[in-house]
Amino acid sequence: METAPDRLAQWLAVLSEALSTTDPVLILGAVVLGVLLALLLRRGQGGTTAAEFAEIKGRLTAMSEMTVRRQAEEAHALDERVEQVATRLGATLDGVSRRLSDSLAETQRQNSDTVARLTERVDTLARHMGDNLAEAGRRTSESLSTLNERLAVIAEAKQSLADLSSEVGSLSGVLANKQARGAFGQVRMEAIIRDALPVGAYEFQATLSNGKRPDCVIRLPNTPASLVIDSKFPLEGFEALRVARTPDEQKAARDAIRTVVGRHIDDIAEKYLIPGETQDTALMFVPSESVYGDLHEHFADLVQRAHRARVVIVAPNILMLAVQTVQAVIKDAKMRDQAGLIQREVGLLLGDVARLAERVAELERHFGLSTKALEKVSASAARISGRGERLTALDLEDESGASSAPARLTSRAS
User: Fold this and answer.
1) Strands (E), 149-297
2) Could you report the per-residue pLDDT of 161-213, keeping only the tens digit for each?
3) CB under 8 Å to 72, separation ≥6 — which residues?
4) Is residue 319 in a domain?
5) Residue among 298, 281, 290 at smallest CA distance from 315
6) Residue 211 within a domain
7) I need a labelling partner for 40 at 20 to 30 A (CA). Which of 9, 25, 167, 316 fits?
């Protein structure tokens, strides 16, 4: 039969085991048990009965079962709370992830649209500049080709003049007929003009405001006044001088040349020099280089008279040089017009480049804001991830370092 000292030893063992734990409830129970044992010892000395020991044991057993049940309920409640927090946290993280994905997709779409527009604009500008440069290169090539052709024409003209100088004798047959002589000068003059000037820069047999019709008018750029050319040079006196044998015949032929050529100079100045309509100087075309040389060698007075009357005597070579000068003036005017067009295009291009620079700066600011937003979102995601990891580890410590008793209870219960 179990004696009181044996039961006392058992209760002391239970008390020792309870005190060895760190559970506050068990410690509290151990303290209560110690108090009861002390009371029992006192009463045992006065005669404690077995019924009292049984009652104390039952109360302790009920207290222990209640403590275990309470711990289980608290652990279950804490598990449910942790599960709810984890569910809400997962839903929040999913929402943040979706919003972040949508924001990134929208930002990428806007950036793609902006880059596509910039690329299209740059391609358009590049094509426009390429077309302009190609057109300028083509025109330059055409100008060089035309210049080479003109140089070839000049070389051919020199050769033709050399051949012509050897065939001066055959010119007398043409000069004998006044109508054929005029046609000969007109044809030579027209050939030189057509070869050197573009269509529209000249006109043959044009009618002036006074009703006179010069052989050719050349329209100069940037001025309404035209340059007049007359090709009806009187060659009869030179033919007479060529066939003269005696000094008297030669003197008479020279006097006739001075009279006829002088009158022709006066007629050109009177008919074709119209202020505001024609240039102040007119050209008198001599279709023969030899006649032109005779004029400057033997009739210097006629040359001076022509200068005073603002009439320039030109031979085929001199006329060609004069027409080349006019051609250079026309080309220069066209180049100035093209330069104005190029200047306008360059101005528009600079405006487009300035707008492109502004849009690139705006795009850089947009990218900078996107980068800052992404950094903030990343920091928030990192903090959320850290909190999730702490929740997973059931580390519910607050910022002051204090921890709650239910968390430790759940950790031990698990």
Assistant:
1) 202-204, 216-219, 226-230, 282-285
2) 777 666 555 445 544 455 555 567 788 888 888 888 888 888 888 888 888 88
3) 413
4) no
5) 290
6) yes
7) 25
C-alpha to C-alpha distances, 195 to 45, 151, 192, 199, 288, nearest whole angstrom = 153, 11, 5, 10, 18
- Count CA within 13 A, CB hemisphere, residue 163: 6
What φ, ψ does residue 224 adopt, rounded to 5°? -80, -15
pLDDT for residue 39: 61
Residues near 186 by beta carbon (within 8 Å), at least 6 away in sequence: 215, 231, 232
Q: What is the pTM of this model?
A: 0.42
Half-sphere exposure in the Cβ direction for 397 (13 Å, CA)? 9
Asked if residue 184 belongs to a domain, the reply is yes
Q: How many domains does the chain have?
A: 1
In whole angstroms, give the CA distance from residue 285 to residue 231. 5
CB 278 within 8 A of CB 225: yes
* Token pair for 204: 């043959």
| Cα angle, residue 334 at apex, residues 331 and 338 outer, rounded to 5° | 135
253 neighbors 291 (Cβ within 8 angstroms)? no
CA–CA dist 140, 334 (Å, integer): 12
274 in any annotated domain: yes
Residues 33-41 have a mean pLDDT of 60
Q: Residue 351: helix, strand or coil by DSSP?
A: helix
Q: How far lies 84's CA from each of 77, 79, 80, 87, 396, in Å?
A: 11, 9, 6, 5, 15
Q: In what order do the strands lie in the sheet with 282-285?
A: 202-204, 216-219, 226-230, 282-285, 311-314
Indicate the angle between helix axes 405-413 and 50-166, nearest 10 degrees: 90
357 vs 118: CA distance, rounded Å: 10
Q: Are strands 202-204 and 282-285 parallel, antiparallel or unpaired?
A: unpaired
Chain-centroid distance of CA 384 in Å reads 45
For tokens 């279950």, name the residue: 76
